[in-house]
Amino acid sequence: MATASIQVSETPLVLYVLRRADDALILGHRLSEWCGHAPMLEEDMALANMALDLLGQARELYSYAANVEGKANDEDKFAYLRDVRQYRNLLLLEQPNGDFARTIVRQFLYSAFADLYWRAMMNSADAMLAAIAAKSEKESAYHLRHSSEWMVRLGDGTEESHGRAQGAIDDLWSFTGEMFGIDASERALIDAGIAVDPASLRPQWIKTVSGIVSEATLALPKSDWMQQGGRSGRHSEHLGHLLSELQSMQRTFPGVTW
Amino acid sequence: MFKEDQLRQRAWDIAAGVVDPEIPVLTIADLGVLRDVALNEGCIEVAITPTYSGCPAMNMITLEIELALERAGFRGSKVRTVLSPAWTTDWMSEEGRRKLREYGIAPPRAASSRRALFGIERVACPQCGSEDTEVLSEFGSTACKALWRCKSCREPFDYFKCH
User: Fold this and answer.
1) Domains and CATH numbers, chain B
2) I need a surface site. Which of A115, A157, B33, B51 has the fewest CB within 10 A?
3) How far apart are CA B145 and CA B105, in angstroms?
4) DSSP string computed for A21-56
């Protein structure tokens, strides 16, 4: 017997916080899929560690969203009892792990963004968001360093690793534009000094990404056509499958605890 | 007033004795995780801060504090988590750093700044003291540690990451 999905009152601030929380949860879940399967023990631990950081960030953000919403929702309900169209994460983060190179490229493209984003959010007029950002930016700095080193090692490694890393960049590039997109509700929060204006981070992001990519002897695609949809709940086919695993216990045994 | 201060101090001492379940040589006071102990309408309220957002030891630490206070006769104590200011390894006491080293974990360097993260790190081997060491993995057995190796004595060791 399945449990019905919750209703969420998506005021601009609730929506804004849920978007960040969903990013952290979905990428964290993807990384946790590597647990026990990574190419070497050190990387198994590294990916699981990063998954844990992201899960921690997601918990703080969901709890805050619940607090702002002021209804009966909580961190668990947001994670386990929303349907795929209610998720607001970036399409990039729900993309399947693929091989190790693809996971690293996804991590690198996002960490280079998240590192800048959290640092900017430390100046938010919203004290709770500023506090969450101050914790998260320390973690994202390590994630960026880890994935940057792997980018260089894979790109400047063998013909095989170079080809796989380049293929992953080519495939994932069209999902990066969404990181810098905003809608009217987010615009209002930016004007109020609460949200970060992602457009202001783009020059530095491009600089970081292209610097590492060229050091890795890789190349950025020429195409600037970008895929959109995750922020408004229009996802790729992969998210539903991910959620069916993530939510299976709560959907099958509603309210189960242990 | 005097009695309140005494009670608060006693509660602090009890909470300060709780150890990190993953690094049991360190107390939460050594780590800088214990932030505040207050007396509110007769009940103790303890504030702790997580080392890392996802640190799974926080639930355990919360429970241990509540139990320790309960055993000492404090009824209805509460533990709350504060995020700001964000925890930094700079809060780790000298005593804590010494205990870590003796335990075989290289302590974080003092006065770490975030940008030092991207500079060259020099970490002394906790076994032989040599600085001829290299990083094996950025991430170790727990969220707060990295895995290093000493090139002098050839021993691998954990390094408590600067944060």
Assistant:
1) 2-81 (3.30.300.130), 93-160 (no CATH)
2) A157
3) 9
4) HHHHHHHHHHHHTTTTTSSSHHHHHHHHHHHHHHHH
The length of chain B is 163
For A56, which of B55, B139, B161 is closest by C-beta distance?
B55
Task: Give the CATH fold of the A12-252 domain.
Answer: Ferritin (1.20.1260)
First to last CA, chain B: 38
* Residue numbers of B between 103 and 162 with CB closer than 8 Å to A: 114, 117-118, 136-141, 143, 147, 161
Within 10 A of B1 (CB to CB), how many other CB atoms are there? 5
Q: What is the pLDDT at residue A171?
A: 97
> What DSSP string describes A115-126?
HHHHHHHTT-SS
Nearest to B53 among A42, A127, A135 (CB): A135
Please, which pLDDT band fits residue B114 given cuts at 50, 70 and 90?
low
Residues of A with CB under 8 A from a CB of B: 42-43, 45-46, 49-50, 52-57, 59-60, 127-128, 130-132, 134-139, 141-142, 145-146, 149
Determine the 3-state secondary structure of B135 from DSSP: strand
pTM: 0.92
Instruction: Indicate the residue type of A143.
Output: H
A41-69 vs A127-155: helix crossing angle, rounded to 10: 160
A29 vs A52: CA distance, rounded Å: 9
In angstroms, the CA B34 to CA B50 distance is 9
Chain B residues with beta carbon closer than 8 angstroms to that of A132: 83
| CB atoms B143 and A42 under 8 Å | no
* Model confidence band, residue B134 (pLDDT cutoffs 50, 70, 90): very high
Domain boundaries of chain A, sorted by first residue? 12-252
User: B136 contacts in A (CB within 8 Å)?
Assistant: 42
pLDDT of residue B3: 86
**For position A1, what pLDDT does the model report?**
45
d(CA A119, CA A133): 7
Q: So what's the pLDDT on residue B162?
A: 80
**Chains A–B, number of C-beta pairs less than 8 Å apart:** 77
Query: Among A104, A118, A142, A152, which would you mutate to test the B interface (most chain B Cβ atoms within 10 Å of its Cβ)?
Result: A142
- pLDDT of A11-44, one tens digit each? 999 999 999 999 999 999 999 999 999 999 999 9
- Residues A241-254 have a mean pLDDT of 94
